[in-house]
Design brief:
globular; 67% helix; single chain
Length: 409
């Protein structure tokens, strides 16, 4: 039996558990934002990803992301499909102190939450059957290639692109897939549906914020000073973004909105994600303030354009992921992380350009593939629910359940 480091292994199992908790947290966050006829419909889309994605990850996902190098570094191979060749003595190549099984589980949690992020955009308009098909093919055609290209030693990694915990891989791809979905399925019949439970949104935000420490600090894949840097950068950026959003909204609408504070925090968390282990604490402050301001403007722009991104996935996650990736290209410093690079402030012009080109390419790819994928899925099974089902609410029409009994209203 191989001798692994108990501290590093234990920490990574804890980080894995924290990231797992983010998916139920997302379900609560979206469930609270949903209208009362669509609470379960949106929550099940997160929870079902925990099952479907785990199966896919075991069958082929892990291998396609982290084994081999095919198609010019765009995707891996199937050498480790069904976990072939991985046993109790297999060490993770990126850190031999932890078992490969642990790395497999940690990355699986990222795969679970990424497609679930998209669902907030098309709430109460997409059938559950079509969502399941989407869940499978979006991972195969969008998520797995970007994991391999950035984290699996593929094309973008070879080009020098950095993404500490998922600005490109998770948030930019999911955010622009969400925008494509919104444009494809069109507007809701009832766009004035208010959140059914702000306390539920707060619970979801708390779970997401808590889990994000595993998401970002765990991405160091070890226990060292960078782990601590990523942890505190995460908290500081989220805090500054939350207060920035609160101040802007308070100034404009004359009321301090709780949902705005919570949304700002999530925007800050998404924006610091690609940079968490590569920038200083002072840079994290700037990134947090920038996130609160830019993501608020993005949501305002979305509303003016009439894009019915119901739960602001594009404005918060898509724009947040892009902004964080670009600001990483500005603030990254080898004095913080020798395995990183120097950003624009430290003479790293080429690195900055690579970051910008990579994130723009990821957004275009995710948007185009998602739109085309939905059109193809629609040939097999209708993507958009009927007007009658939408008005009735998907909890009842799709699932035959309701979140609260009639006496709750």
């Amino acid at each position: 039996m191989a001798a692994f480091d108990a501290g590093s292994t234990g920490f990574m199992l804890l980080a894995t558990s924290l990231v797992m908790l983010m998916t139920p947290g997302l379900a609560f966050f979206y469930g609270g934002l949903a209208g009362r006829r669509n609470i379960l419909g949106i929550m099940i889309q997160s929870f079902v990803s925990m099952g479907i994605t785990t199966i896919m990850w075991y069958l082929c996902g892990y291998s396609l992301c982290f084994s081999g190098n095919s198609m010019g570094g765009v995707i891996g191979d199937l050498h480790k499909a069904l976990m072939h060749g991985v046993n109790l003595n297999s060490a993770f190549s990126g850190n031999p102190k932890i078992p490969e099984f642990v790395f497999f589980a940690y990355q699986m949690m990222f795969a679970i939450i990424t497609p679930a992020l998209i669902t907030g955009a098309f709430i109460n308009r997409v059938s559950f059957k079509s969502y399941l098909v989407f869940l499978v093919f979006w991972q195969l055609l969008v998520y797995y290639p970007f994991v391999h290209m950035v984290w699996g030693g593929g094309l973008l990694a070879q080009w020098g692109v950095l993404d500490f915990a998922g600005g490109i891989v998770v948030h930019a791809t999911a955010g622009f897939a969400a925008l494509a979905s919104v444009i494809y399925v069109g507007k809701r019949k009832d766009t004035e549906s208010p959140p059914n439970s702000i306390p539920l949104i707060a619970i979801g935000t708390g779970l997401l914020w808590f889990g994000w420490y595993g998401f970002n600090a765990g991405s160091e894949l070890d226990v060292d000073a960078i782990t601590g840097q990523a942890f505190i950068n995460t908290d500081v950026a989220a805090s500054f973004a939350a207060i920035t959003w609160l101040i802007i909204e308070w100034t404009l609408v004359k009321k301090p909105k709780f949902v705005g504070l919570l949304t700002g925090a999530v925007a800050g968390l998404a924006t610091i994600t690609p940079a968490a282990g590569f920038v200083s604490l002072n840079a994290a402050v700037v990134i947090g303030i920038s996130s609160g301001f830019v993501c608020y403007l993005a949501v305002h722009f979305k509303n003016k354009r009439g894009w019915d991104d119901a739960l602001d996935v594009w404005g918060v996650h898509g724009i947040g992921g892009c902004l964080g990736t670009i600001l990483l290209g500005v603030f990254a410093a080898k004095s913080i992380n020798v395995h990183g690079d120097n950003g624009l402030l430290y003479g790293g012009t080429t690195f900055f350009i690579h970051q910008v080109v990579a994130v723009v390419g990821a957004c275009v790819y995710a948007f185009v593939f998602t739109y085309g994928m939905l059109a193809l899925i629609n040939v097999v099974t209708k993507v958009k629910v009927t007007e009658e089902a939408e008005i009735k609410g998907l909890d009842n029409s799709e699932h035959g359940e309701q979140a609260y009994d009639a006496g709750a209203f």
